[in-house]
Structure formats: C-alpha cells, structure tokens
Amino acid sequence: MKIYLADLAYMNPTVTRQPVPFNVACVASYTLKHLPDMEIEIFKHPDMLLAAVAQSPPDVLALSHYAWNSNLNHGIMKRCKELRPDLVVIMGGCNFNDWDHEWIEWFFRKRPFLDIHITQEGEGGFLKIIQLLHENGCDLKRTKVEDWSSNIFGYDHEAGKLIHNPGNPMANIDPATLPSPYLTGLLDPFLANENLSPIIETNRGCPYACSFCVWGGMGAKLRKYDLQTIIDEVYYIARKAANPTRVLYIADSNFGILKRDRQIAEAIMDCRSTHGFPQRLSLYSPKNPTAHSLDICELISPITSMSMSLQSTDKQVLENIRRSNIKHERYDDLRIKAEKKGIQTDCELIYGLPGESYESFLQGMVGVTRSGQFVQLYEHTILLGAESANREYREKYGIKSAFRYAYDIEGAYKDISSIEFEEVVIETKTMPQKDYFRLRQLHFLIATFSARLFQEFRHALKYNKLEIASLAGKIMEDEANWPERWRDILLQLQQACRDELITTDVDELRTEFSKEDLSEVRKKARALIPSSMCTLFAREGNMRELRGYLVSSFPRFFPGNSDEDFEDWTAALDFSMDRACCYDELKQTRVVTYPYDLDAWLGSEGQPLRDYALPEPATYSIELRDGVWEAFEKAKEAGSDLENAVYLLKMKYFPSSHDRIYYYLRPSKGGTAVNKDDEIESKREARLPLYSSWNTGGEAKPESV
C-alpha cells in the first residue's frame, strides 16, 4: 500500500524558517516500525506533492492539519481526489474541536473530500486506520467502526452521518519507543534543503492547561524521548543541516523543566563548538522557572533568550485561563538572577484574555516594563482544539471574535490558490470592542518604544522609576494634543485594524480562492504593527515631530519630576533619535557629538545622566549596518512609495531583522563596534513563531523536496 504523508506549508524561495516535516516523519517511522512493508513518502512542498500524485497516485494521502495550512490542505486534497477518486484522505492534528460533534459535522461538510480526521497524538490512530485499511483492501467502508480508536473521526458524506467510536480509547505513545526519523534517514532530503530548519522534540505533554493553548491536550504528564537518541539526533542534524540560519527548534512546551535537559543543553553547546551548529536556538522555557532550569538557560544563553511568559499579571485573568504563574516577587527575583548570569529574558503578554480590561492590561505592562525587561505582546487568537474555542467558555466570558487573513500565510501552487484565516478576540465582558482597538494602538506604542533605538531614553526614565508603559498610557489619553503626523499614524492604524476584520461569521469563510483573490489579498494584507512602525521611520519629519511632542509633554505627563529630570530625558531622547534610520534621509555613516560618557552611564544601575557629564564632548561615528543600504535600494524599486519600500525592506529584503532596520550602530567610546544589539535581536528573532515567515509572499517556486 502506497502512502503519501505531508506537512504542507506555504513555501517560497525567501522562506528559511519553516521546519522540516518532523511531525509526519514521526508518524511514518512509527508506522514503518509496525508495518515495514508499507511504501511511504514524505512531502513538505505542495508542488512536489501534486507532481508525485499526478505521476504515481498513492492509496492514502495523509496531511498534518494546523491553523496555518488548513485551506491549503483543502485545495490539495480536492485536486488529489480529482486525480484519484478512490483515494483515502486523512488529516490529523490539533486544529480540531474533538469534543463538539455538531462542530465536527460542520467541519466535514465544509471538506467533502476528507475521509478521516485523527486527533491527539497521530502515531497510534494513524497506525490503527492503516492496519484496518491494509486488512480490507484499502476500502474504508469495509472497515469496522468498532475497531476504530476513539481519536479517529470519519464522516459518511452520502448519509450526512458522523462516524466515531468513543468506546475504544487510544493510549498515549511512549516517545522512548519511537524510532528516530532523523537517525533512520527519513528526514535527510529535508535537512539538505536550505529553506527548511531542523526541529527536535525531547518530551511530550505539558503540566499546564492554559485555556488559549492546545499543548495541554497532550496530557499533563511529561513523557520523555530516549536521552541518547536525542543527543545523537543533535549531532546528526549538525552534520547534515544545510539551512544557512543555523537555527535549531526545540518543540517542547517547557524545555529546561527536567533535570536531564541539562545533558541535552550540554550536547547542543558542544555540538556548536565542534560543528558550528546551532548558532541560534528557538524554544519555550519553563513557565515556572526553577534553580536547575535557570542553570540550563545560562548554559545556552549565548544562542537563545529565556522566555518568562506571564501572559497576564491579573489574578482573576490567570484563574480564568487556568494559568498558575509564579509569584510576582519570585518572578522579579528570578529575572534579576538571570540577568546576573548573563541570560537575556523576554516576557510575553496577551491582550484580550477573559477578564482582562484595557486598564488591567496596561497596569500589568507597567509592572513588567519597569524592570527594563523586553515585552512581546500578542493578541488573543482562538486556536481550534483549545478550551477557548469551546462554545460554553466563550459564552461564560462574553468572548466575541472576528476573522482576518493570516498575514503572509498564502500562496499559489500549480493552479491552486490558497489563503489562510485567523480568528482574533475583539470583545469580552471586560473588554468592549472600542478597547480592543485602543489596545492595538497601545501595542504599536510599546513595540516602538521597546525598539533598541530607544535604549538610552528608557535608561533615563529608569532613574525616575518610570518606564515606557506609563508613557504609552499617557500618550493614549492625550489624543487632543497629538501632533498631525503622529495622529495620522495612530488613526490610520486604528482604521486598518477595523478594515482587516473580514467577518464574525465562520460560515462566511471560504476554503477555495482564485488567482484574483490571492492578488487582492497580497495588495492589502499587512502585519499592521510593523507596518505602522515602518511608516513612522520612513520620514525624518515624523521622528522630529515625535521628539518635539514628547519633550513638550514631559512636564504635563509627569508633573512631579524636576526640570533636571526633563533635561536628562530630553538629552537621552536625542541620543536615541540620532540613531534613528529615517529613510528619506538615509546615510551610510553619521557623526554625532555628546557631552556625556554614554557607555559608563548605560552600564550604571539607574543613575541620572547629568552625573556622567564629560569635560570635553565625545565624538562618535554611527554606522548603517551591513546590507541595509543595498537591500533598501531593492525595496525602493519594488515599493509603491517610501513607506511601502521601508515595509518591504523589513518584511522581505532584510528579513528576520526584528527592529534592526530602525537604528544605526553606535561604536563604544574606544571605537570598537557595539555588537550587543545584534546579539540580542538575533536571540529574539529565533523565538518567532514557527509559522511566521517574515516575507511578503509571492508565488512559490518548487523546492527540492
């Protein structure tokens, strides 16, 4: 029996962040362990799968199913069914509400070409259905439903009837018994592909059951892969991986939670020393760090940051989302310990969670940013399979959502055009819809002032126990005094946030698209926060106006501070503004003179700038980082205007750059280039979501696999 297994993604030549198809390779290796005579091929690129099906159709087509490839799967399986009508089509993955039979029937009716969906872990359910098909001449109708495991769902499209056997539960797999898809060579063709990045998993499960996440569905008990197998995989990947980013993904929910994770970390760092791989590590740190997890994070700190994901600081919100965070006092203690060990820490917060209001979210940000910790903000998006997708949960907390195009998750393969959607929470009982749009503006302000560009300005505020969240909150309440350019940027962002919402009715969402649809989406779809930041930095006049507005507002925003404080803030803001890359006045180098010892001041713990005045001004030559000038020239040729060119620079021509296109590099006083900014941004970008491809799209071209 011939089986094609695919973890399809929207691929094009500029994408380097997509992971190898490790998930379906695990399913394949487990199936081959029990049924070695099966003929199995694995695919990642839609064009390669379509070509293979056209040339030699399989008996079974199995597709991984996530929020970022759902419609793509639909288009592909429709075409494959047209090529071979008796093909058995299976999907599997977490993007499925397996508790809601009414929803499941709707799901299958929207996908008339789908025969089976497998939930929870894929290996056991897939093996079971393949065994039954093998025994029954690959005729699904001849299989007995009482033999199906409970994680297999089918649908009789002719009778309009759900097929399911809840009385035959499928036990979780012991990962230690799984054959490695790396060491068996199944993933060799994908490691050789420069567009794909390797990913490993060291354990399964998550001890937390956060309502917005699907990880808890894997079970609370952590189940470990064989330790030696993991270590062997790391060295194997190092020898084989061709991806130029040299990044390694770890797919654990809490890497560092187990004491044995130190042995894995030691192997990774030794591999880096001996093979030059990995140079970056993308992972999720433990939600509740411990002494041993802190030691592990210190060990791998040269190539990654430590995520301290709070999601919210409000006690009621945490209760609503079934999240148990560490105590605030212990959080600060661990953050300080991490910083002393040289570990860069990041914090994640989500707005739109049930029970969170505009005011409580802003208050939480004030507490987090006061320490100077970098904060990454996210909207509350609904993931199928998570508790927040449950109807009763939505009703309890008054959750209302809307759908929009998922930025840059689209493409055309052969003559199949496909676009994905994402569902975002726009209202709850505690967050009226108007506050959702205010939070989007607040998100832009925090992202802007969190940029490395404003390092000096943030440091000046720190002396007065102030931070960017308080400043952003003051700006949001000061709309009557916003200057013209600044007002236009903020109001245009708010309108764009309204315009991107397509519908609140899931039944209005399409699964099939034309080339014209795809072209229209590519013209309109934007990552709105980066887009607004690019608009701000596009013109020097915007930055000058922002500088003038802030300086004039300091006494009004913070009347309790002294004139000396305001003078320090202004000088520090000017240092930051001097480094701003304004693209209508872009230069390769600039010379600036400061009457302060900036390096000594930035190394101090919240001391006033005035204490670091120099007898003679110091001169610095600030420099545009390598590659930006050339990349911007290309972006200008492709862009419709200056703002669009800067956006293209960030998202396509200088990709995975985080905020590095926004500022010039300033060498230290001794003339040595300061590379700390690049090191920090490299660690941050390594933690971008796996499905984020940070480019502007474009018709995908075939890859080697």
Characterization of this structure:
The radius of gyration is 26 Å and the shape is globular. Helix 4 links the parallel strand 5 and strand 6. The strands form seven sheets. The protein has a seven-stranded mixed sheet with strand order 3-1-4-5-6-7-8, with helices on both faces. It has a three-stranded parallel sheet with strand order 10-13-14, with helices on one face. A three-stranded parallel sheet has the order 15-16-17, covered by helices on one side. Helix 7 packs parallel to helix 8. It is of the alpha/beta class and 705 residues long. The C terminus is likely disordered. It starts with a strand and ends in a 20-residue tail after the last helix.
Write out key terms for the chains shown:
single chain; 705 residues; Rossmann fold; seven-stranded mixed sheet; three-stranded parallel sheet; 25 helices
